[in-house]
Design goal:
Distance between the termini: 90 Å
Helix content: 25-40%
Oligomer: single chain
Number of strands: 9
Shape: globular
Strand content: 15-25%
Number of domains: 1
Radius of gyration: 23 Å
CATH topology: Sortase, Chain: A
Order of helices and strands: HHEEEEHEEHHEEE
CATH class: Mainly Beta
Length: 234
């Protein structure tokens, strides 16, 4: 009787181990598929057909979405994306430019900024993704040699304004730093004074009229952000 009971218990344990192993296997498969999909969404090349090349075809962005306000390119990096602007700053955290759910989200302009980039200070956000996708490439800008070799970019607005971007600063800063993350209430003078004293890399910009910042998170465990700053010029 005891042996029979032991055999039943052993079989039950074997079944439990088998079920747990199967569940673990399925979770691993799901995680792998999810990671692949996140990477795929961050590298979705289909949006490139909506990329304008100048003032003449800037309106093509409207065919992508009514929320598309510009196209951002940072020279010699993987940053080559449409810029969205939602009603809130959480809208495009997990939504792609087509409006579909996506963990990689979109590059987006702070909801409080002017969608035509007429403000003195414009702030863009993007997720920190692997392989330099989305705003994952920003990490490299903290290195002086890399920064020096990647100083330029372009911004084409849906209204047809074509701006050259010249980057002048790189900094790691907390997400609760109002001087950086409260664009409507920040003057360029305050911002430049802050950057001059805190930035890892800072070169005095020749033009202070229009400043643009690109921001991404460092990790899910802290509020530190990596940012680069540039000036817009026609």
């Amino acid at each position: 009787m005891l042996r029979k009971t032991i055999k039943i218990v052993d079989k039950s344990i074997d079944r439990i181990v088998l079920i747990v192993s199967l569940l673990f296997f399925l979770i691993c498969i799901y995680a792998m598929i999810d990671a692949v999909m996140v990477y795929y969404n961050a590298n979705d090349q289909s949006v490139l057909k909506f990329k304008p090349h100048g003032k003449e075809d800037a309106a093509i962005l409207r065919e992508l979405s009514e929320d598309a306000v510009a196209w951002l390119t940072v020279s010699d990096t993987n940053i080559d994306y449409p810029v969205m602007q939602g009603k809130t700053n959480s809208e495009y955290l997990n939504k792609d430019p087509y409006g579909d759910y996506s963990l990689s989200g979109s590059i987006f302009l702070d909801s409080r900024c002017d969608g035509g980039f007429k403000d003195a200070y414009s702030l863009l956000y993007g997720h920190h993704m692997d392989y330099g996708t989305m705003f994952g490439a920003l990490d490299e800008f903290i290195k002086p040699d890399y920064f020096s070799a990647h100083r330029t970019g372009t911004l084409i607005t849906v209204g047809g304004d074509v701006y050259k971007i010249t980057f002048f600063a790189a900094i790691k800063a907390p997400a609760d730093e109002d001087i950086i993350f409260d664009p409507p209430n920040t003057t360029n003078e305050e911002l430049l004074d802050y950057l001059k004293s805190k930035a890892t890399i800072y070169e005095e910009p020749q033009d202070r009229t229009q400043i643009i910042a690109l921001s991404t998170c460092q990790s899910a465990e802290n509020i530190e952000r990596m940012l680069i700053f540039g000036v817009l010029s026609n």
